[in-house]
Each structure stands twice: as C-alpha cells, then as structure tokens.
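Worked example (supplementary).
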Amino acid sequence: REDATDRVDVPGVATGLAVTGVGGDVLFVETARLDDDGGKGSLHLTGQLGDVMQESATIALSFLRSHAEELQLDGTALGGRFHVHFPAGAIPKDGPSAGVTMTTALASLVTGRKVRAGVGMTGEVTLQGKVLPIGGVKQKVLAAHRSGLDTVLLPKRNEADIDDVPESVRDAMTIHFVEDVRDVLSLALEPVE
Amino acid sequence: REDATDRVDVPGVATGLAVTGVGGDVLFVETARLDDDGGKGSLHLTGQLGDVMQESATIALSFLRSHAEELQLDGTALGGRFHVHFPAGAIPKDGPSAGVTMTTALASLVTGRKVRAGVGMTGEVTLQGKVLPIGGVKQKVLAAHRSGLDTVLLPKRNEADIDDVPESVRDAMTIHFVEDVRDVLSLALEPVE
Amino acid sequence: REDATDRVDVPGVATGLAVTGVGGDVLFVETARLDDDGGKGSLHLTGQLGDVMQESATIALSFLRSHAEELQLDGTALGGRFHVHFPAGAIPKDGPSAGVTMTTALASLVTGRKVRAGVGMTGEVTLQGKVLPIGGVKQKVLAAHRSGLDTVLLPKRNEADIDDVPESVRDAMTIHFVEDVRDVLSLALEPVE
Amino acid sequence: REDATDRVDVPGVATGLAVTGVGGDVLFVETARLDDDGGKGSLHLTGQLGDVMQESATIALSFLRSHAEELQLDGTALGGRFHVHFPAGAIPKDGPSAGVTMTTALASLVTGRKVRAGVGMTGEVTLQGKVLPIGGVKQKVLAAHRSGLDTVLLPKRNEADIDDVPESVRDAMTIHFVEDVRDVLSLALEPVE
Amino acid sequence: REDATDRVDVPGVATGLAVTGVGGDVLFVETARLDDDGGKGSLHLTGQLGDVMQESATIALSFLRSHAEELQLDGTALGGRFHVHFPAGAIPKDGPSAGVTMTTALASLVTGRKVRAGVGMTGEVTLQGKVLPIGGVKQKVLAAHRSGLDTVLLPKRNEADIDDVPESVRDAMTIHFVEDVRDVLSLALEPVE
Amino acid sequence: REDATDRVDVPGVATGLAVTGVGGDVLFVETARLDDDGGKGSLHLTGQLGDVMQESATIALSFLRSHAEELQLDGTALGGRFHVHFPAGAIPKDGPSAGVTMTTALASLVTGRKVRAGVGMTGEVTLQGKVLPIGGVKQKVLAAHRSGLDTVLLPKRNEADIDDVPESVRDAMTIHFVEDVRDVLSLALEPVE
Ligand SMILES: [Ca+2]
Ligand SMILES: [Ca+2]
Ligand SMILES: [Ca+2]
Ligand SMILES: [Ca+2]
Ligand SMILES: [Ca+2]
Ligand SMILES: [Ca+2]
Ligand SMILES: [Ca+2]
Ligand SMILES: [Ca+2]
Ligand SMILES: [Ca+2]
Ligand SMILES: [Ca+2]
Ligand SMILES: [Ca+2]
Ligand SMILES: [Ca+2]
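After joint prediction of all chains, the assembly is encoded as:
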C-alpha cells in the first residue's frame, strides 16, 4: 500500500476519504491547469465519475471563481481549463462528498500552496461554500488512520457520528469539524513558500 | 437542523418550499455569476435537476432579461453566465414550482439586494411573469413554519388551499398571495443598502 | 379559471387551442427576444414540447425570416434568439397544430402589435405559410367559447368539421377559415399603435 | 384534396412521390434560405425525417455545392443555411428516394427558377449526381396521376417497373427516365424569368 | 447492373469490394470537398455507416494529412471539409475494410488524379498507412470479376486466402498484394493529366 | 505474424501489452498531429475504445501538457489536435493500462525521438505521472516475448506478479519496474538523432 502522504508533495493534489464496497479508502484528487480557455473556466473530468460527482466538481470551481476576490485567489488563473482526475481510472465513483477535496485541490493548484501532508477530508460543498454532512464517517476515519493520515476534516453536522469511531483511533487523530469550506482551505493549505 | 434564515445572508440566495416523499421541506437556491458569457446569458444548473426544473430556470432568467428595463435591472449583468445550484447535491429535484424562487435569487444576485430573512416562496413562473398554482400548499407552509420562516409567498390561484393549513400555523405566519412575479420581487428583496 | 383575454395584453403572446385528455383547452404561447444571436436566429423552447412541436416552432420562425420583406417585418429583429414558452411548464405538449399560434406570437413580438383580445387559433403551418388541417375542431371551439374568446381561426381544410360544433356556440363565435398564415396575421394582429 | 400544382408557384418547392402505408402520395418539399451561415452551408431539416432521409438531404446540398461551377449555380448562395421541410409535420418519413426532389427544390431556390407545374419526381441521388433506382413505381405514378400531375421523372434503372402501371395512366402522363440528376434539373426547372 | 468502370470517370471516386449477406459486391465511395473548414479538416459521412467504418474514414483523412509532405499532397486542400458517401444510401455498412478505398478516393480528389478504370480494392488502413488483412477475399474477388474489374488490390497478409478463388478467375485478373497504402496509391491513381 | 519491432520505426508509435480473451497480445498505438487546434490541445481517438481507455488518453495528453516545461517538451506542439489510433480498427478495447503507452507515443511524436525497438510496456498513468498497477502480467510478458520484444516496462506495484512468468522467459527479457511515467519516457525513448 502506498503511503498517502507521498501523493500531496506537489500543489494541486488533495486527499479525500471515500466509502467503498468493503469499508473506507483514501481517494486522491489530482488537478492540472491545461490552458486559459479564453477565460471561460471549464473542467475536464476523468476517473469514471458519476453525474453527482461531476456536478460537485463544477460547484467547487464556481465557488472559487465567484469568491476569488474574497479568497485572494487569482481570478484569471481560475478562468482556465482544468483537468480533474480521480485514480484509479477504471473504478466508478460518485456522490457529492468529495466537494471539499476538489475545492482544496483546485485552490492548491492556483495558489501553488501544497496541501499539508497527513490531512484527509470529506464533505459536500454548496455554491456558497457551506459544508453539508456526508455518510460513512466511521469507515472514512478508519481508512484515514490506516493510510497514515494524522488529521481529518469533517462536516460540523457530522459531529455526532464521530462516536462510532473507536476511541483509540480518535485519540490518534486530529479531527476538525467545519461548517464552511473557507475553514477547510485555512486548515489544509500550507502557507505560501 | 440548520436555521433557514442563516442561508440568505448574502445576495443570490433564496428560500423555496418543496414537497418531498415525507412532507414538505425548505429548499435553498444558490446563484453565482461566473463570467460575462459574451453577453449571451446562460445557465449552469446543478443539484440533479429534472428537465421541467431546468426549463423553469431558463424561464426565470429569460423573464428577467426580457424585462430588465421595466424591472430596472442591469441588462449587461443579466447577459452573463450563471451557476444555479440546489443543495443537497445528490437528491433529485424536479417540477416548475421553484420558478419564483429562482427568479428572486437571480434578481437578488444582480442587484446586490439580499432576500429578506424569514421569507419562503413557491410558485411556477411563466415567461410573462405570471405566477401559476402549485401543489402541496399545506406541506410547504408547515415546512416553512418548522424551519423558522415567518413569511410565505404563494400563488393567488392557490388561495383556496390555505384552508388545509392549521389555523395556529396560519396565524403565526404572514402569507401573501401573488399573481405576478413582480410582486414577489417587491415583497422578497431588501432595499438597496 | 383565468380569463384568456388577460394574457394577450402585451406583444408576443397568442392564444392557441389544444386537445387534451379531457376535451379541449386554450393554450397560451409566450415569446421573448433574448439577444441578437449574431444574426443567426434561434429558438429556446420550454414547456415540455415534443419533437413535432419543436420542429413546428422552427418552421414558424423560418417562415417569418424567409418572408420578412414581403411581410414588412424587421429581418434584423427576426435574426435574434427567441424564447418560446407554453405554460403550464410540467405538462407535456406535442403536435404541429400550434404552428399558426407560434407564427402569430413571434410576429406580434417583433412588430410590437398585440394579438387582438378574444382571438384563438389553431392550424399547422408549412414553410411556405400554407395552413394545414388539424384534429379536434369541436373540442377546440368549445374550449375557446368556454374561455371567453369570441373569434376562432381555423384551417380552411377543416371547414367541414365545424358541423360538429353545436349551433348555439357557432352563432356566438366569429369563425374564420384560413388557407395561409398571412391571413392569420392580418386577422389576429392589432394595428400598430 | 389540394391540387399539387398550386404548391410549386414559388421557387424552392418541388413535388416528390412517396409510398405510404395505403398506396402512393405526392410529397412536397419546401425550402428556404435562412442566412449565410458564414459560408459553411448547412441544413435544418423538419417533417419528422428518418436518418436515411436526413443523409439524403445533405447529399443533395453537397452535390450542388461541389458542382456549382459546372451547374452555373451561385456558390455563395449555396454556402448558406437552409431549412428543408416536408409537410405534414407529424408524419414520419424516411428513405433515400426524395433525393432528386430535394436537389431540385434547392436548385430552384438558389436560381429563382420555379419547378414546372405538373412535374413529380422520385429517385435516390448520389454525391456524383447519379440517380439510383427506388421502389414503389406503380403506386407513385398512380398518385402523381391522381394528384393532377402530367409529368413524372423516374430513375432509368426503374424503366422495367413501368409495365406495372396501367396503360391508360401511362398514356396520360409524360414519363422521363433519368440517369443523372443534371437531367432532372434540366427537365424540371423553368427557364429564368 | 451498372458497369463499375463508369463510376470512376471523375477524381474522388474509388471502387471498393464488400461482403454482403449474399456474397460479395463492389462498393463505390464518392468524395467531395465542401469548403476549407478553417483548415481543421473534417468529414461528413453518409450511407448509413457504422461506427467502425466512420472511424476508418477519419483514419484515412488523418493518414493523408499527417503524411501530406511525404506524399506530395496539398496540405491546405486536405485541411478542408469533405463529404464521403457510400451508395446505396439506405443500406447499412460497417467494418474497417474500406480503409484503402477511402484513402484512395480522397487522395484522388485532392490531386485531381482519377482512379484507374478497372481497379477494385479492399483493406484496413492504420494511421501509419499499414494495410491490415480483411475477410471475404473469395467473395470480393468474385464480385470484382463479375463487375468487370480487371485488377484487385488486396492486403499482403491475405495472400494465403487467394487459393479459395477459382483459378479461372485468378487468371483473368491482375491481383496485387500490398503492405502499405502508399503502394495502393501508386497502383491505383492515374498519372497527373 | 508481424514482427512487433517493425512498427516503431517512426516517431509516434509505441508498443503496449494487452490481455485478450485468449491470452495476451501486443497492442500498437499510433499517433499523429493533425493541426494546431488553436492551442487547445485535443484528441481524436479511434480503434473502438471504451470510455475508460478514452479517459486514459486524455490523462496522457494532460500529463504531458501540464509538465511540458519539466519534461523539456514543446508546449506549443502539445497544444495541437492529435489522432490516436489502436489497430485493429474493429476490435473493441478498454481499460486504463495503455496509459504509459499512449504517454510514450505522444512524447515520441512531439520530440521526434523514436521508441526503442524491442520495448513493450503496460501501466495506468495518473495525472501526476504515477504508474498504477495493472492486471495480466503473466499473459502480457509472454505475449511480449512471443512477439520478439526484449524489454518490458511494468508498474512497480506489479513486482510480485512477475513470479507467475516462467523463469526461462524472465531470463530472456529485460524487465523494468517503474513508479513514474517519467522513468518510462527515459527508458523507452531513443536519444535525439
Ligand atoms: Ca446519477
Ligand atoms: Ca485526538
Ligand atoms: Ca421529465
Ligand atoms: Ca397570519
Ligand atoms: Ca416524436
Ligand atoms: Ca357566428
Ligand atoms: Ca434508421
Ligand atoms: Ca405517355
Ligand atoms: Ca459498433
Ligand atoms: Ca492473373
Ligand atoms: Ca464503461
Ligand atoms: Ca532478465
């Protein structure tokens, strides 16, 4: 098994948490900026993503674009064309819970700030940046722990679900509950180098 | 449960009322302006919207664009590309009854006038701005009440259906019956700050 | 029930006649001009229209565009992008018999001439402007009468079907039989104000 | 029943012959030039045409465009966007045998030369202008006769099928057998006025 | 039955060989250049072609475009939009074996060099110009012979299949086995006039 | 059987390894650059590729484009439109394991550096260039050996699977295990001529 912390050693990559048929798993998102797209801002999505997950990707980009000034992001860079990929390429994936992860990966890419090693995250994001609750908290936190992550970001409205996680795992991890994706970005992105 | 009034603290968000499998619920619509789209005016829609609801969104934008002068709206701003999202992202939604809500959210966005806290609404809108009747009045008003809203805007042609709502709830709420979406905008949007 | 004559108080709206599962009904068509579309002339259609009805809408616009000079219409205005909507938004509609109604509504919109109050119409239109026969004459005329219309425009080739309408209704209505949509425009549009 | 000769009193309309479920029938094709399409040359097709018939329409236009000089046609006019409609709008139609009719109608439109009154035609056209054989000769000729046409253009390779037509009808009609759509254009188009 | 040699009397037409339900047949491909397409190079395909055959057409054009200099072809001409049609229009066709025929017809069109009368061909083409083996050698050669062709071009890797063809037919025909579509072009195209 | 080493005698061609219904096989990928595509960078894919394999192709191109500077590739050349074809054209193919092969073929094309004769490869590529494990190691290595290849590039994470390959074959081949597609490019591409 690959160590999850190896994958985020460049800007544009973030570590999500997913529920699979056999428990939880970490789920990397990789992003690249392909060209300036005439300033339109578009996404090329791969990894056999279902329609909910594809919509979730466009919400992540639209949130960043429509709040670029507030977030001190480069609006011109965000107007480009992005490729967002979720390995492994043959495994179908769906659902809204990678919203925070995609938002973070794209913000990392356009700022050049890497995602902190050891941070995993999960949560639906709305167009306003609200973080909505997701399922599978227990499996996701266990998978994060197993993969060598030390910090997990979860939706505030999932706070009650953390009781399902064994205390030993909870004690070994730093868990943040967030209501707004702005807090995810603050917690997950490294400072500018 | 989130307090519905928290969500409309920025321009571009409005609170609709929906019928779900298990009664009624409030339904937020979030809007963002992505770019100027060469003045064409288009919509990017997310939230697993069915085809009737997608058509309804285009009617909302077309009404505002073709009546911009009368409504004192910025026609250039309305010629942009908009993202309209209905959380939660994985729940399919359909029907024409969010027409007034989308019209209000888009008008809020381009004017910068917030939607009044505490106002929920439902009603189909036509391209002329007529408000047509919808179903589920009882469930919708009860959901509005439960969610902390104090004012509900309903189609005039649903006036008879209000009898189904318990008198205690009716007494606790301000209910407006409207024939034209212009009246919705007057009642729902805060004055320019 | 709404009075049909209220709806045509602005240019761009016309009253058609349709057969539904339970008899006939009036069917409004609303039109708006969205932008100039680079002179290409296109349609955005809503109201859950079937493919025959969608084709019918393009025939209406193509007829007007290719006969603009003869009809003294503004060819530049007709080169724009139009939204054509048939309320109610959730009810599927199909068939070619709203051809005359769409042609009239679009001509009304670009000329600024309102459709005469009290006029309902039905008939397929060809690209040359010929009016072809339709079904459901009896139900349509009865629905027009019930809705407060006083004049009905029908295809010439449906002349024999008028016998099915009760004499009392026929006497109360003015019925015109037309072979060409040019005659529909002459009979239905108010003079320039 | 409408007299078929009335329909071709303007350039751009030609009379085809079709086999229907209950024998043969005349089939009008109406054409209009919508705009210059940036010189690309495209077709908007209506009348519930099947895919073979849609391909046949593009072959007709491509033949005319790629042989414009030889045929002394206006290449710029042929680079426009055309609407080709086959009434009645709700009746599905398919097959390659309206190839000669569409070629003739488009040539008529761009030259301003009307199609001769009384001429009906049928035949597949290839991209080189070859006329390939079709089915239903007997029913088509009978339908032409019934509809008041006096001349029929048929593929040379259907010459043997004419024996199936009653002698009285054959004697009453002028029948031309053609191998090339260039001959169809010579026989069917009126001289320049 | 038409004589196959009549069809290739203009540049842009080539004669292929196909297997049908009832043996083999000759299969003409007709090509035309519609316009310059802004130098993009595209294809409009008709004749009810299946997806493998449509891909095969794009391989033919891409081979010619990416080897234009080596093949002394006019790269600008190859950047145009082409219509490629396989009569008869209503008969579905599929498979990769018309690759050499389409390559030859397109090369003929852009050079103005006719395909030699009497030459039929079959073979899959790769993007490098390799000729891959096909099925139905016996039926195809017999069909070529029956149709009056005197020369057949076959893939080198089909050399063993020629034993299935009766010796009398083999003796009457000139048969070339080719490994590369460059050899097909040399053998099939007439010199510049 | 064709010798696999013949196919890579020009830049833009690479040799992959695939699992088929009856064992393994070599699988060539051919690439060509069609035009500059306005700098957008796009792919035209043929060879009956499934959706996973099509996504895999876009990942290959996006990796090269977004790492052009680091890899010393010509970013302008990579912004063109590419045709990527997998013979044979009628055989459906799918899966992510040709990722390294497509990346190599495209890098070969834009650098003009041929792929070394005798090298076969297999492996999924991510947008960061990580090489992920694939299936069918045994069949693929056997097929490489059978086809005359002397070197095989496999994912590092498939190292344990090599035990399944008979020792005689392993001894006859040079096998490299790679973690990053950058290593594939170093091992597989010939030096600049
Ligand atoms: Ca779905
Ligand atoms: Ca802890
Ligand atoms: Ca629907
Ligand atoms: Ca009250
Ligand atoms: Ca239909
Ligand atoms: Ca009367
Ligand atoms: Ca079909
Ligand atoms: Ca005669
Ligand atoms: Ca297929
Ligand atoms: Ca011989
Ligand atoms: Ca698939
Ligand atoms: Ca070895």
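Two points are worth noting when inspecting this output. The first strand of chain F starts at residue 13 and ends at 20. Strands of chain F lie at 13-20, 23-35, 42-46, 81-85, 119-121, 124-125, 131-132, 151-155, 174-178.
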